[in-house]
Prior knowledge:
The complex is a heterodimer of chains A (about 250) and B (about 400).
Chain A: E1 2-13, E2 16-28, E3 33-38, H1 44-51, E4 59-64, E5 67-68, H2 74-84, E6 85-88, H3 100-105, H4 117-130, H5 146-158, E7 164-168, H6 176-191, E8 195-199, H7 203-206, E9 211-216, E10 219-225, H8 231-236, H9 241-249
Chain B: H1 5-16, H2 18-54, E1 60-65, H3 85-94, E2 98-113, E3 116-125, H4 129-133, E4 137-140, H5 145-150, E5 154-157, H6 159-166, E6 175-178, E7 181-189, H7 198-201, E8 204-208, H8 209-217, E9 224-229, H9 235-249, E10 260-264, H10 265-308, H11 310-318, H12 323-360, H13 368-394, H14 398-403
Parallel strand pairs in B: 3-8, 5-7
Antiparallel strand pairs in B: 1-9, 1-10, 2-3, 2-6, 2-9, 4-7, 5-8, 6-7
The structure holds adenosine-5'-triphosphate and magnesium ion.
Amino acid sequence: MISLKDITKSYRSGSLSVDALRGITMEIEEGEFTTIMGSSGSGKSTLMNILGCLDKPTEGSYLLNGEDVSKFKKEKLSQVRNRMIGFVFQNFHLLPRTTALENVELPLLYTEEKLSWKEIHKRAGEALDIVGLGDRKKHSPNELSGGQMQRVAIARALVTRPSVLLADEPTGNLDSRTSLEIMDIFQRLNREGLTILMVSHEPDIARFSKRITILRDGLIISDKPNTPRSSADAIAQWKDEAEIMSEETA
Amino acid sequence: MKLSAVPYVALKALRRNRMRTLLTALGIIIGVAAVITMVGLGQGAGAEVREQVNRLGQNVVLVFPGARQLGGVSIGGGSANTLTVDDARALREEIPEVIAASPEVRSQRVVVYGNQNWFTRIYGQSADYLQIRQWGIESGRMFDEGDVENAALVAVVGQTIVEELFEGADPIGETVRVRGLPLELIGILEPKGMSLMGSVQDDIVLMPYTTGFQRISGRSHAMVINVQVFDEQSMEIAQLKITDLLRERHGLAPYQENDFTVQTQEEVAAAATETSRIMTWLLASIAGVSLFVGGIGIMNVMLVSVTERTREIGLRLAVGARGPDVLLQFLIESVVLCLLGGIGGILLGLAATEIIASYAGWPALFSTEAMIIVVSVSAAVGVFFGFYPAWKASRLDPIEALRRE
Ligand SMILES: Nc1ncnc2c1ncn2[C@@H]1O[C@H](COP(=O)(O)OP(=O)(O)OP(=O)(O)O)[C@@H](O)[C@H]1O
Ligand SMILES: [Mg+2]
């Protein structure tokens, strides 16, 4: 479904050139749940942006559902992003002073599909139900917690029914309990057949995925399947601060 | 992109930033209001001048004292003392085409009746003045040649005087005082109230010119001689004859310029219309400058909001908006802003015109044409000034835009 071949990316600033990616080749099949790990500056975000068609590789080819999107023009890439990709950002990127529902509707305003307003509202509402925020439709971001904001962002990524969900450090700004809840949503979506690719540098988070790829200095140094830990178990075993504190004193 | 979503998104953005929207629209509101007010007052003034000229009557020639002034206009005139009462009489008696000639003297005076006062315009005219003006008497009679001969203390008044001094009661036979001079009212003029400036025209007191010259104004020379010519075909020849006769009477040598000016009603009207047209344009262009400044304000705000909203644009691009979608959104935003400003400006302008007109007593004309033009101009200003920032926004790279703080 996704096929990267010898992807490189160099940033040029003046005479200085930074090679963020130095030849990435990788395949991602439908239904996978992959985590890309690596230390800061290893090129994870750069790779995700290329996968998300937000950026173009310097060299190499990127086949998405059989199409070589690395050759696409700006306008066409917009449609690819809209149709095939759901992107979740580390810092949510919700529109301020705009309700959760309207935030989720946003991608539907730009689809090629002919949707009536009724369908748009309905689909956005359904997406919010999927992430468990059916009762927060009319809330604006400043009335939501971080975890809720990220769930709105996930709903927004899902609303166009993309073939792949890309998430760049989706739990980077969340506490560990809320992170678990996000992983619970991801595992559930993956079980229902959604392909997920996420970036994280937390091993605890990566453990929930089925495959872990590690980057260093713009190259893949490890790519292994992983037996995912169940988010339901993790949540069941969750101890809150009070419990941890009382255990330590006991 | 979904078509109906374009205005939706633009309106949402305007609502989300209410203060910004309001301040930007204010620039346009003030600009449009200024144009509407200026054009309204300018056109009103023009209409009044035309009306004043038109009411002169048909086949009328005006003789003003003094040489032709620059630009050919000598409206109002009356500064030089070159036209006498005898000149007027000579015109009527010696030129066959001239059927009436009235030496005019005007002054503004307070008219007193009992304990009532009214400030009005007093005209000294000849007995055939109403014929020249094609104006009728509603009741009573016009003063006659004999009254003029004797400088009789009689007056004919317009409707406004009847209303203001007599509260509608029949004034005929009553005596009013002007500068202590008792005047018997012998007639009431027909109302001109139906016409645009009718109520202004009705605010008038007519008396024999002899009385006007001797008792009221203390002048001995006419401010203008109103001349009526027999028919339209004779207008040209009459003007030539008037000029020749007056030159002869004033003893002007061939090399000397006329010390009077002969103009037809049409010439006076054309000159006055031209003057008021220039004035309207002048006022409108001054106001146009403020509209332009308002437009620059829009561009400024749009530019700032692009910077401010870079992340929003980045996000829209990231979820699938194309450059043209973003461009359209920003364009619609500024057009809507300008149209809102335009409508607000029209309302404010109409109110301002109404207030100025009623307080200063100036006439005002509202032209729908001017409103349509000014609103289209403000929309054009919006498109024009909205375009550059919108184009700038539409070319942003999604990650570049998202990364910006
Ligand atoms: N726009 C840019 N211009 C120049 N250099 C860039 C740009 N974006 C990324 N880089 C460089 O590319 C390299 C990889 O950056 P990238 O953001 O992909 O790292 P990362 O793995 O996501 O790190 P982190 O874990 O901190 O998010 C870094 O050396 C970075 O400095
Ligand atoms: Mg990163």
